[in-house]
Amino acid sequence: YIEPSEGYSLQLNGKALGTGLTIEPDELRYRHDPEAAAAAPEAYERLINNVLEGDQTNFTHWSELSASWHFIDAIQAAWSQEPNMPTYPAATMGPQAAFDLLSRDGREWFWQPHRVQMAD
Questions:
Q1: Which of 35, 26, 37 is CA-nearest to residue 2?
Q2: Are 23 and 16 in contact (CB under 8 A)?
Q3: 94 with 120: CB under 8 angstroms?
Q4: C-alpha–C-alpha distance, residues 26 and 28, integer Å
Q5: By the 8 A CB rule, do 13 and 23 touch?
Q6: What mean pLDDT, rounded, does the chain reach?
Q7: How confident is the model at residue 87 (pLDDT cuts 50, 70, 90)?
Q8: Would you state the pLDDT for residue 55?
Q9: Alpha-carbon distance 11 to 14, whole Å?
Q10: What sequence ranges are listed for the domain Glucose-6-phosphate dehydrogenase C-terminal (predicted)?
Q11: In this model, does residue 114 exceed pLDDT 60?
């Protein structure tokens, strides 16, 4: 739940009391005490206080942000390259590269129908 009555709930399914095997829903609910909620800081009050006190716990340092982007940039660079993936038409056994991959080790596909169109 969100303001003004903050809290949370969890819905579970459990066996009903008795000897039967009936399942029934049960909800666990928790709501903050209104008096405790009134004494708690507002949404950004704690963050502003952290800034004034010099507490950087809830803030990202530039070095962390830079390292994160370095990681993401490497992923984006890999995605932007054109992959050398063989393509093949639908309803075929796949590209010749799939057969070549197995034949390098002296293996072959187990299922080989006699009238299968091979893709180039």
A1: 37
A2: yes
A3: no
A4: 7
A5: yes
A6: 86
A7: confident
A8: 93
A9: 10
A10: 2-109
A11: no
The H-or-E segment that residue 15 falls in is strand 7-15
d(CA 97, CA 85): 9
Nearest-angstrom CA–CA distance, 45 and 83: 50
Q: Token pair for residue 12?
A: 């579970």
Confidence at residue 69, expressed as pLDDT on a 0 to 100 scale:
96
Neighbours of 37 (CB within 10 A): 14
Length, in residues, of the chain: 120
What is the mean predicted confidence (pLDDT) over 46-59?
Answer: 92
Look at residues 106, 105, 88 and name the one whose alpha carbon lies nearest to residue 97. 88
Amino acid at 24: E
Helix H or strand E encompassing 36: helix 34-39
